[in-house]
Amino acid sequence: MRFIEDIQSVFNRDPAARNTFEVITCYSGVQAMLFYRLTHRLWLLKLKWLARFISMLSRWFTGIEIHPGATIGRRFFIDHGMGVVIGETAEIGDDVTLYHGVTLGGTSWQKGKRHPTLGNNVVIGAGAKILGPITLGDHVRVGSNSVVVKSIEAEKTVVGVPGRVLKDKTVKSEHFDSYAVGGSEDDPTIKAINSILKHLHDVDSQLHKVSKELNIKDQKDSSVNGLEIESK
């Protein structure tokens, strides 16, 4: 049963989880998935109003909004959960992890595919926004508060606004900081800042050198003038 796998995934990814009763009663992400598994079946049975109504109750109860039309794979885990939004045409693979405040949203009012597709083992950091009918490949990592509007190849790490792929970075789940926006030297923003700081340092050094040379010249001129006055 998929819901049992959802519960087990909590123990695999959250060291704070102590027992099954606590997970079922205190983890909003697990509760939201319980509602979703029910509403998705109703949706497939064409009981769409009932599915939407129960989904609305789930949002009120858990703070997580999952459209019953979304397709979600096995062992899906939402950590903390508050503010997560998953749109109708979103497709999520197996072993995916979302943190609080994540949005899998659309960018168009047109019918059809409007929401993202996530591969297997994807991790989306807190507050990140994945927008439009784009695809994130397997093992993609998205840093917190990033905004991703373009498809990302497998095993890449994305940070920033708009989302930028860190070069040659393959970050495994156990080493991925889902609350960070990326402190890597490969981040182009960090590179630009470091370049500016280096330039300022060079300018400061040149000014110090010029100032020192001017002081030496002033001292020589003063000495020459003093000798001329004495000779007179």
The total number of structural domains is 2
Q: Can you tell me the CATH topology of the largest domain? A: UDP N-Acetylglucosamine Acyltransferase, domain 1
The N- to C-terminal Cα distance equals: 109 Å
* Main sheet characteristics: 6 strands, mixed
Strands in their spatial order, largest beta sheet: 3-6-9-12-14-15
Write down the secondary-structure element order: HHHHEEEEEEEEEEEEEEEH
Helical percentage: 40-55%
Low-confidence stretches: none
What structural class do you assign from the helix and strand content? alpha/beta
Architecture of the largest domain, CATH level 2?
Answer: 3 Solenoid
Rg of Cα set: 28 Å
CATH class category of the largest domain: Mainly Beta
Shape: elongated
**What is the assigned CATH homologous superfamily of the largest domain?**
Hexapeptide repeat proteins
Number of helical elements: 5
The total count of strands amounts to: 15
Roughly what is the average pLDDT, rounded to an integer?
83
What does this structure look like?
The chain has 232 residues and is of the alpha/beta class. The protein folds into two domains: 182 residues, Hexapeptide repeat proteins (UDP N-Acetylglucosamine Acyltransferase, domain 1, 3 Solenoid), CATH 2.160.10; 46 residues. The chain has a six-stranded mixed sheet with strand order 3-6-9-12-14-15. Strands 1-4-7-10-13 form a five-stranded parallel sheet. α3 runs antiparallel to α4. It is elongated, with a radius of gyration of 28 Å.
Structure at a glance:
By secondary structure, the protein is of the alpha/beta class. It has 5 helices and 15 strands.
